[in-house]
Na+/H+ antiporter (Bacteroides graminisolvens DSM 19988 = JCM 15093), 710 residues
Amino acid sequence: MDWLNLDFQLPITNPTWVFFLVLTIILFAPILLNRLRIPHIIGMILAGVVIGDYGFNVLERDSSFELFGKVGLYYIMFLAGLEMDMEDFKKNRLKGLVFGIYTFIIPMALGIWSGMTILGYNMTTAILLASMYASHTLIAYPIVSRYGLGRLRSVSITIAGTAITVTLALIILAVIAGGYSGTIDGFFWMWLTLKVIAVVFLIIYFFPRIGRWFFRKYEDNIMQFIFVLAMVFLGGGMLELAGLEGILGAFMVGLVLNRLIPHVSPLMNRLEFVGNALFIPYFLIGVGMIINVRSLFAQGEALKVAVVMTIVATLSKWLAAWFTQKTFRMHKHERAMIFGLSNAQAAATLAAVLIGNKIEISPGVPLLNDDVLNGTVVMILFTCIISSVVTERASRQITLGDDFILPDEKTKEEEKILIPVSNPETIEGLMGMALLMKDPKRNDGLVALNVINDNNASESVLARGRKSLERTAMVAAAVDVKVATATRFDQSTVSGIIHAVKEYNATEVVIGLHRKATIVDSFFGALAENLLKGMHRQVMIVKCLMPANTLRRIIVAVPVKAEYEAGFLKWIDRLCRMGGQLGCRIHFFAHPETLRYLESYVRKKHKNVRTEFTAFPNWEDLLLLTGQVNYDHLLVIVSARRGSISYSPLFEKLPMQISKYFNNNSLLVLYPDQYGDPQDTLSFSDLGHHNESQHYEAVGRWFYKWFKKS
């Protein structure tokens, strides 16, 4: 019965069972603690305490925890930079700087005072201890991300302040470590400064350009994911070589790649999924495994150090958040968010205490003794608990507050974007545009349609249609968006689309640009032209020559009197959403009168989007825009159907001008909604006969010019 002889001993070292236990903790910790309304981050840390060397010794903190823990720590900082609203970050950089100064100076002052007077340490030990209080880790950031609040002003301020205080704390650590190794002199400071400046320049200047080139050349999802991770660790490794902690490098890589990875994109979804599912929990469990709770009760000094460190660290961070709130007259919920995010001690704190524990001020006497080491890990546990609870509560209150303040959002027209798919090559581009323009607060509202002609309903056509719809659903599922798929049999594609618009109550249609098959074929194709005649909903005709996330600017040409169209505000919202997701500038060219309405609405509703406005009174030749549109820009031409207020006979020249001047550019031709009070009076007549007034207007302009010359 040798098969009953189980070789079981603790700690478990078999890789299979180690990984199984870790996955079990990651799975069940949130389930158990959600019932108690406790953030699951705390569960990961407590689980690490229980299974670690100082708990029941179920698992040993081996190299796998060090490796995955470092990846998780880099992931937290990288995602913090990646999910920031860069425009909001720039707008709040002064507030972030002020908070960074507060959250560094206040903990340093309280830390030095408490270390020397209460704990009785010397000046050097007290300064290093205070720098540990000054630094903090955004360990509660996954909570903010889960609530979708990553772009709040308070979050941007906290992240900016984090970068400042962690940098200063790590510089103090480098100076103290260098002092005991005998390397502190003028050359040390000069060399450290030069290395840091060189690395920061390389990351800021080269990383975005390399990323943009890679994303254009390789569209494979797995290759893009691996590339981004490689860039994160390259940035972290480079900053470590410069003499600082790699977490700052990971944060900087997140900032510079921010505009290349839209918040609603398959790549962003994969990055968040892998980090939150594996690497970040691994890091949290590893933090819990180094906590020795029993040592606190073995001798009174360790408990005293732990209590003092926890109180001073928490109080100093609360004071920094309070001073920031009072300085900038912020809401109390914003103060709670800043305090919650900045209170957790983990990354730089662990680095400082481990390095300080290895530095010997005399043979056998470390700079930071074991009492400080144990007190630090207890401080990490309690500050992480406080940080998680406060951030969870603040996030919930802010979310409920938004719902209360903006009840009119629910009364708006329910958005639903219809995407007819037939060509497999255009599915990625069409879905990418639709995802960028959809309401970011909703995970539905997309309808993928495949229309099959009754006269050509063969098995092969049906199979191709199913594959196209499956591919569309896969693209949407990659970003956790639900897309409704439908196959419709109809006499023509146009008729099928029009009926689907009515059936699903679609608010707009996104179609691909027609490819000319013959010389006599029209530029937009018969499908688009008949679709525009047969429906009044917004239609967007798209041609994508490169992935949307690599676009650097959106150029929008707006016709005269566009502000009088019923769909004027709708297409502005869609384009501003796209600009906000991509983090690129939107440059509007319009008539001065139209420009006034445009600028007023954008400044009021989309103030965080980078915009630029230029008067463009002459629509006779789009050649004037060729100097503004580069190969990596998206040209948006706001057109109009015949008979509408903003229609002009000049639009008849659009196909020729586009094919002549902008054939190598990504393009979006937009036809706004053409319904509402001003247009209802024309609905009794066929759209094809609505252009008589335009001809009369053209004749009137000709007579005016003739008399003016005379």
